[in-house]
Amino acid sequence: MHKTLEQLLTHVPTLQVKGSADVSIEGIAFDSRAVQEGDLFVAVRGTQADGHRFIPQAISAGAVAVVCETLPEELLEGISFVQVSNSALALGKIASAFYDWPSRELQLIGITGTNGKTTTATLLYELFMQLGYKAGLISTVENRIGSLREPATHTTPDAVSLQSLLARMLDAGCAYVFMEVSSHALEQQRLAGTDFSGAVFTNLTHDHLDYHGSFKAYLKAKKKLFDELLPKAFALINTDDKNGAVMVQNTRAKVYRYGLRQ
Question: What is the pTM of this model?
């Protein structure tokens, strides 16, 4: 599989492009240690390291193009450089384009909340499989493509792994995919370029504040999933949790509610 750089940038807001946009891209990497010949390297500023520091290593490993927020002082001849305002956002959209936007062809349901994500996603997956649909599962415990099981490394995979996994699910004939969506993934833009058919909110408690810093920031990260739903999608919220109403304050999706007390 390969695409031209120009094809991958179709939905990415760029500040400037230095070099050819017609270069052929064989793969995408955001870790310089994983770069292979012909890859596009996306320099992302992470919590532990800044990918911009590793642009020279990525080029030495075979990267033919680089997406970054800050251009290097020296632009090597024969290498295409793309400057963007948000590399993490660009990475998600580029990965989606590279794998032909698989989420658009799937009924992808995201489940978010502090507790109950794995249980809810797994029950929905099992239910749809029992009903005769071929389904996919992306969870903390494992990923499933139909009956095929694969180990999971994160609650929500990185942007490139996610789009690759969704593409394989589509190729395998899956119609529905149930996916745990973590606040970390939403905050880090790992889901950029992913179209959800629906989203489910379970609950929100005072966990993960070490990462988000405050409950307000944690709530805002979760809310992003519902804010970005398309009008044709649905949002299902738990009304027994007062934060459920907050989740859908700005959604364009059709809102449904469940609860025991309301």
Answer: 0.94
